Amino acid sequence: MKRLFLLAIITIASCCVFTSCEKDEFGGASAKHNYTVTSYLGELGANSIELRFYEYNDKNEMINYNTWDNVQNGAKKSFAAHDLATKLVVYIKADTAYGEFNRYVAQIFYLTTKNTSIVLDGETLVSKYSPI
To answer: Is residue 8 part of a domain?
Structure first.
């Protein structure tokens, strides 16, 4: 009887270990940080604007990204960052009267607070290359 009871306890314990609610490394993780982006890029005369947000971990590995299509001037949008994300790089893709405008924001945004605020406007420095 003791052996049967011990076997039952071991079986239950092993089932709990293998079916626990542990977060997997990249999918389904909850957000530690959020970031809110306000865009005033419509003042630049673009027909359409798309923003891409590339999230990186401590090892500078891209682990997630978000996109914001049809960005309107003065619009604000919040995103939940991946649980392992520590920094963020923004990419701007715009269709203008002069052709396509594809640039990275020349700044790394560190996700050190619960909600990081980012403002993009005509004064935002851009580059052809990613800052990471």
So the answer is: no
